[in-house]
Amino acid sequence: MTEPVAAVLAIDGGNSKTDVLLVDADGTILASLRGPGASPQAVGLEASMRAFDDMVRRTARDARLPPGKPLARHTAAYLAGADLPREEEMLQRAVAEQGWSHSTVVGNDTFAVLRAGTPDGVGVAVVCGAGINCVGVAPDGQISRFPSVGRISGDWGAGEFLATEMIWWAMRAADGRGPDTALLPAVLDHFRAASAPELVERLHFGEVPPDHLGALTPILFQVAEGSDEVALRLVERLAEEVALLATVSLRRLDLLTEAVPVVLGGGVAVGAGPLLWERVRQLCTTAAPRCEVRVVDVPPVVGAALYGLDAIGAEPAAEQRLRSAGRALLGGIAERMDDPR
């Protein structure tokens, strides 16, 4: 059998986007692609695999790989929706059946953030994006996880949840049931609504595109920066939740007194800015004085690719090369997202 040109196929399959990388054994990125979210929990398993396969094929063409399978020696796929053991088993089988590589590992996308933010995958990662989740890995390999399937598993926070909280407070400010808040004009402006009743009607009849709701969350941090009390309380509540996930994980792993990283990832957390980051740092270091809170500085798909390089026994220099390219890739992704075309 002909050895594949690429060493690692890496997939970060989130709820709102999918990132794909093909990487050489020396850490060189052969091609990258950002596509729409296609998590199995959102579109179903078969549709998810079709979408992933299409994105993988497009990435392979961009890398000018020869047609046919396999495309890579190893696939490292870290996916939203791989929350419970039966989901991981189902996705492991489904991804392996695609035949993209000789070997395959599938895990929850939070692990990709952990590896992206650490040199060895040891520490704690809290992801706050479309969902909220946390994983921890101890030096001895012990793992701390949460089900993280929404309110039924005790979750609080993340994108659309925070957006609905913002709207709730804005509407109560509009009709007098709640305190005045700058969230009201900010929310109305975001949706281009002339009044609170107009916005309620549009939301009630499903006339607001779902992505407009998720895009509301960054405004929370902007309003909070202006010292709005309601917005500040929401940011404080989110900081408490993020820190709680992290410190509970550290406690479970007996790492409260150790110098370990706590990595923040996900679109909401990364985009929040220092107001959230510093408060999380204060809360975490109160419980675990030696922990180091950091914000991930490369896309999670780089973390997935690093797991892939680990699996094939790549040289340490490959990680540094991939990280350097990944930081540039993060800037390129941001530019593509901002491009109105």
Descriptive account of the structure:
The protein is an alpha/beta fold. The protein folds into two domains: 6-117 and 298-338, Nucleotidyltransferase, domain 5; 121-295, Nucleotidyltransferase, domain 5. Helices cover 50% and strands 18% of the residues. The protein has 14 helices and ten strands. It has helices at 40-43, 45-62, 85-96, 109-116, 159-175, 183-191, 196-204, 210-214, 217-225, 229-252, 267-272, 274-287, 300-312, 316-338; strands at residues 6-13, 17-23, 29-36, 72-79, 101-108, 123-128, 132-137, 143-145, 261-265, 292-295. The strands form two sheets. The protein has a five-stranded mixed beta sheet, with helices on both faces. Strands 8-7-6-9-10 form a five-stranded mixed beta sheet, with helices on both faces. Helix 9 (217-225) packs across helix 10 and helix 13 (300-312) runs antiparallel to helix 14 (316-338). It is globular. The termini are far apart. Keywords: Kinase, Transferase. One of its GO terms (molecular function) is kinase activity. Residues 11-308 form the ATPase BadF/BadG/BcrA/BcrD type domain. InterPro entries: ATPase_BadF, ATPase_NBD, Euk-type_GlcNAc_Kinase. It comes from Longimycelium tulufanense.
